[in-house]
Prior knowledge:
7-stranded parallel beta sheet; single chain; alpha/beta
Amino acid sequence: MTSRDVVFTFWRETWADAVRRQFMPPDRLAKALLAEERVGKLLVVDPFRSGPVQVARQVLGWPPTPFPSSPTAALFSPMRLRRGEAHGPRSLRRSYADYDRRLEAKARARGLEAPALITTNPFYAAYAPLEWTGPVTYYAWDDWSALPALERWWPDIREAYTIIRSRGHRVCAVSQTLLDKVKPRGVGMTVPNGIVPGEWQAPWQPPAWLESLPRPRILYAGAIHSRLDTERVREISRAFPEATILFVGPAVTSDVVAMLGHLPNVEVKEALPRKEIAGLIHEVEVCIMPHLRNALTKAMSPLKIYEYCAAGRPSAVTDLPPVRGIHRVVQLVPEGESFPEAVQRALDGGPMTEAERLEFLDANSWARRHDEILDLALR
Length: 379
């Protein structure tokens, strides 16, 4: 099998973040590249790190996150004084020209030859010269131009999409909506999120506190933030007063967490280890995703839906383009229709058969997803 040298760059996260989380799309892809036969030499690159911050961490005794370095694989973490991202086209071009020079020098020192570039950073794909590498593939795993935390950069991100289009870069997006937003002039492909089958097999390990909670247990597993439609949650709470409605995940938006805490049959729990998340989902009666309809949610590929299905659970979810057609046990809630009625349909329909679940695991594995991404990026 012919191999190709590859450079993979993170953007808003680092290799250390990927090791800590282990489940987001860039985390999965970086790990897959390390074991991929089609990849020759590999350079994994963090975004710019603040030199003073890294020195302070060393002084405080923070242990570095290990990387499986080898003659064919290396991690590069370029340093600079400034901590935050540049702002405005002129500053971004200057910043990413510097970043690009450093990556080129590191790649040459490591002996990479004509490497393909896969980047999750729209600014790097748009504003860097990139004359030493190619083809360039932008891996769009969220619509950053709609993420509230990045509102200051929205004009720059939209301009980056335009430049990516004009430069003819390849684009792999997690949803058709997101691909349509970037509108690549070069080759484009939609590859949604996936799952690792081995993480969704018995023995299941639910948290100890689950068994004592009243049934039916209705679960939302994921970050608790502003994309939640709190009015739909109120409706579910009123319609199922005897149920336990669980929200399990990182508390991102404090006012949403506070609202949930005031509902009588809602339990908010902290994020769990991956093994317990799989056990939790497998043991509840129904899962939910009551998301608002906005530019961000219409473009995302909700990982939680694939995880609900990986455990065989029925679910009720806001009807958004990326969640249509995933599986028959996913009950869609179109705009204006009743979310509690969809929850009841999910309860009545019950879980997948074990044969269906195993078929879903095979069809939606990250291994299959990564094959598709590399078919695009390396050809």
